[in-house]
């Protein structure tokens, strides 16, 4: 699932590519993916792109917005030219070398190009909502603080962690506690902080919480710098159709059986909360 750096990468690209343009038409190929009436946004101008947690928000004129949740395998690809079918010089994971593909479920015809939404697993969605609904809808209102916002303080983390006996990794990934951190960056941050993923959140010392706050911000910024992570499943791609680059800098994620780059100890893997969890037995306590 794309996490904060991946969605932020998509956001920054689309800001430059489509803001100021108008949605001329929408082709919905899978009804459950597009929730709302296309005619409510056709003809609307794209006024801005925002991100909240792992969700993309496309702000439109006349009090409308599109909220995009990519879930496990959602992809957005921008093609700045016309044509019924686009052929790439490289394959797009789950789509192949041509768009639209079998996994293409929504196509936005925008003056200046086309925006394709692909989704192999079909868990993602695009919703038409009003600006008022952006403020009150539960899946946005109930999100925790953003790691780059001023509310992401040591004091707030102390309060959040003190209330939970769950493993710290699961708390980091709880979107109602902290918005945007998922499996990849939780693994990376806990390694950088030297904290065992299974350690109960309420048992973290103040100095550990301070360090964890710093490295969460650090690894997320690294992820953005390298254009997000295209891990082994290759589900995430940039809107250009190309992979991100942060996977080349993983500390522990998906490196089970390999040597720790700090101490040389073999990296271990377990399942925690149904997700692959990676750590160094020597560096993390």
Quickly list its features:
26% strand, single chain, 285 residues, globular, alpha+beta, N-terminal domain of MutM-like DNA repair proteins, five-stranded mixed beta sheet, 13 strands, Helicase, Ruva Protein, domain 3
Sum this structure up briefly:
With 285 residues, this protein is α+β, with helices and mostly antiparallel strands. The protein has helices at 4-18, 131-136, 138-141, 154-162, 168-173, 183-193, 206-225, and strands at 23-28, 34-35, 46-52, 55-60, 64-69, 74-79, 86-92, 96-99, 104-110, 113-119, 125-130, 268-272, 275-279. The chain has two domains: 4-141, MutM-like, N-terminal (N-terminal domain of MutM-like DNA repair proteins); 154-279, Helicase, Ruva Protein, domain 3, CATH 1.10.8.50.
Give an overview in words:
There is one protein chain. With 285 residues, the chain is α+β, with helices and mostly antiparallel strands. It folds into 2 domains: 4-141, N-terminal domain of MutM-like DNA repair proteins (Alpha-Beta Barrel); 154-279, Helicase, Ruva Protein, domain 3, CATH 1.10.8. The protein has helices at 4-18, 131-136, 138-141, 154-162, 168-173, 183-193, 206-225; strands spanning 23-28, 34-35, 46-52, 55-60, 64-69, 74-79, 86-92, 96-99, 104-110, 113-119, 125-130, 268-272, 275-279. It has a 5-stranded mixed β-sheet with strand order 2-11-5-4-3. A 4-stranded antiparallel β-sheet has the order 1-9-10-6, with helices on one face. A two-stranded antiparallel sheet has the order 7-8. It starts with a helix and ends in a 6-residue tail after the last strand.
């Amino acid at each position: 699932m794309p996490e904060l750096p991946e969605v932020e990468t998509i956001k920054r690209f689309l800001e430059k590519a489509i803001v100021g343009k108008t949605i001329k038409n929408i082709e919905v190929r899978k009804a459950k993916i597009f929730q709302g009436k296309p005619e409510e946004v056709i003809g609307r101008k794209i006024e801005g792109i925002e991100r909240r947690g792992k969700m993309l928000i496309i702000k439109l004129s006349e009090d409308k917005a599109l909220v995009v949740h990519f879930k496990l395998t959602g992809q957005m690809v921008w093609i700045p030219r016309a044509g019924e079918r686009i052929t790439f010089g490289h394959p797009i994971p789950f789509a192949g070398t041509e768009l639209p593909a079998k996994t293409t479920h929504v196509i936005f015809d925008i003056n200046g190009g086309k925006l394709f939404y692909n989704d192999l697993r079909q868990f993602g969605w695009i919703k038409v909502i009003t600006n008022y609904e952006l403020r009150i809808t539960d899946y946005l209102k109930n999100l925790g603080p953003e790691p780059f916002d001023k509310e992401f303080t040591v004091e707030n983390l102390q309060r959040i962690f003190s209330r939970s006996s769950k493993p710290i990794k699961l708390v980091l990934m709880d979107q109602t506690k902290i918005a945007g951190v998922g499996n990849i960056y939780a693994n990376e941050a806990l390694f950088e902080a030297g904290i065992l993923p299974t350690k109960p959140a309420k048992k973290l010392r103040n100095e550990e919480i301070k360090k964890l706050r710093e490295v969460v911000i650090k690894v997320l910024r690294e992820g953005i710098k390298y254009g997000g992570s295209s891990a082994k499943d290759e589900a995430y791609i940039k809107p250009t159709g190309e992979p991100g680059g942060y996977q080349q800098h993983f500390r522990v994620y998906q490196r089970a059986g390999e040597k720790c780059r700090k101490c040389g100890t073999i990296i271990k893997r377990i399942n925690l909360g149904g997700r692959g969890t990676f750590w160094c037995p020597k560096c993390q306590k």
